[in-house]
Amino acid sequence: MIFSLFRKDPRRTAIATLYKGIATASRAPGLYAALGIPDTLEGRFEALCLHMVLALRALRGFPSPADEIARDLTEAFFRDMDASLREMGVGDTVVPKRMKKVAASFYGRAHAYDGPLNDADEAGLAVALGRNAYGTDAPAAPLARYALAADRALKAQGLETLMDTGPAFPEPATFS
């Protein structure tokens, strides 16, 4: 019985692999060089949020256990954000406050992107992405085209493929 504590949980491993794929896609050089996301701490957070939103949207459309996977993936994202804050030297007493801001930012972006992604509204998505990812009023049209293509591609992958091989995001440079 004690040995069961040391076995790897295949679900936890799959979630870690899925999150790693999302995080890796959010660091693609083309997002910064070709699509203009600022290569800053804030820009990288925006890229990670966008890719998380896209992955969670795909999971939302898949049958069970996709809902549990989405919950576990969201928890992995917030654990990573917590660990990142601590690595940057944010004190233990301040981390909960910062995490509330991170959560509000993430869910705000998810809400802002959801409608335009549902409607395939490139112009509306470009405005929301410009405001969040670029920090300006200028629309982010190439980034919106990328996000719409990624949304379609992830939904077409299917749950098994997504879990087995990880998320396949398009090459950002092709949308510049």
UniProtKB/TrEMBL annotation:
<feature type="domain" description="Ubiquinol-cytochrome c chaperone">
    <location>
        <begin position="34"/>
        <end position="169"/>
    </location>
</feature>
<dbReference type="InterPro" id="IPR007129">
    <property type="entry name" value="Ubiqinol_cyt_c_chaperone_CPB3"/>
</dbReference>
<comment type="similarity">
    <text>Belongs to the CBP3 family.</text>
</comment>
<dbReference type="InterPro" id="IPR021150">
    <property type="entry name" value="Ubiq_cyt_c_chap"/>
</dbReference>
<dbReference type="InterPro" id="IPR014569">
    <property type="entry name" value="Ubq_cyt-c_CBP3-rel"/>
</dbReference>
<protein>
    <submittedName>
        <fullName>Ubiquinol-cytochrome C chaperone</fullName>
    </submittedName>
</protein>
<dbReference type="Pfam" id="PF03981">
    <property type="entry name" value="Ubiq_cyt_C_chap"/>
</dbReference>
<comment type="similarity">
    <text>Belongs to the UPF0174 family.</text>
</comment>
